[in-house]
Design goal:
By secondary structure, this protein is mainly β.
Length: about 240
């Protein structure tokens, strides 16, 4: 019993020690990091996220009636998810307005089995301002919303984040898409989906190109079995020495 408790305690210690960003949907795409939204510097600080190359959709509605989804892949030996963060804005907001929503992780598709449900934690302003082409202004400051999980264990495989947001403004909330300077879309797979009486690809109304969404997944990689066995043995040995004193 003592050994089992020590192994569990050890797993907690290892997980805490290895807390990290597990996934950033903008990473590795040649975008201005970390959000994958920025296109130019803003004179007052931060960045503008200006629509590029014929795009006309600043954000996609995700207010409950409409929902958004995008996918990610977990490699072996798996992940322990602590939180998922998504991005949205409400036009004209001068204070943080996003105050809730719902977020699920599903297996295999936006309609797959629910493997975890997040709890809304908080929202905060980023330093990104979404703007239409040639209309740089501060009307659409992007907010980041955090949904928390209680150490959700995901085995290797394909998963989808599905979500909507709510806020104190009547505008949106709207979800900006990843943006690359000079291009109508970003490199790599564009699997983002929007629900409106059924799931369909996220397509910019102006350029007709498929889009993808910014989101983060935070937590820890599941420790390898050999690591946990060594940790458990070490902790048990420490306990045995303590009992002999």
């Amino acid at each position: 019993m003592v050994r089992n408790l020590l192994v569990i305690a050890g797993l907690t210690v290892v997980a805490a020690a290895n807390a990290q960003s597990l996934y950033n949907n903008a990473a590795g795409r040649g975008l201005i990091e970390p959000e994958g939204l920025a296109t130019s510097a803003r004179s007052g600080g931060g960045f503008y996220s200006e629509l590029q190359a014929g795009n006309t959709t600043a954000g996609f509605t995700a207010n409950g009636t409409f929902r958004m989804a995008d996918d990610f892949t977990v490699g072996g030996p798996g992940w322990i998810v602590n939180s998922v963060q998504v991005f949205g804005y409400q036009t004209g907001a001068t204070t943080v307005t996003i105050n809730g929503g719902a977020l699920e992780i599903r297996s295999g598709s936006p309609t797959g089995a629910v493997v975890g449900t997040g709890t809304f934690g908080a929202a905060a302003f980023t330093n990104i301002y979404r703007a239409f082409a040639g209309q740089l202004n501060d009307q659409r400051r992007v907010q980041i919303a955090t949904f928390n999980f209680n150490n959700l264990n995901l085995a290797a495989g394909n998963y989808w984040v599905t979500f909507h947001l709510s806020g104190t403004s009547t505008s949106g909330p709207f979800i900006p898409s990843l943006t690359q300077v000079g291009q109508p879309t970003v490199p790599g797979s564009k699997n983002a989906q929007q629900f409106n009486n059924g799931w369909a690809g996220v397509i910019d109304a102006g350029s007709g190109t498929a889009q993808d969404l910014p989101f983060y997944i935070n937590g820890q990689v599941v420790p390898e079995p050999a690591t946990m066995l060594a940790l458990g043995a070490g902790l048990a040995a420490v306990a045995a020495r303590r009992r002999k004193k």
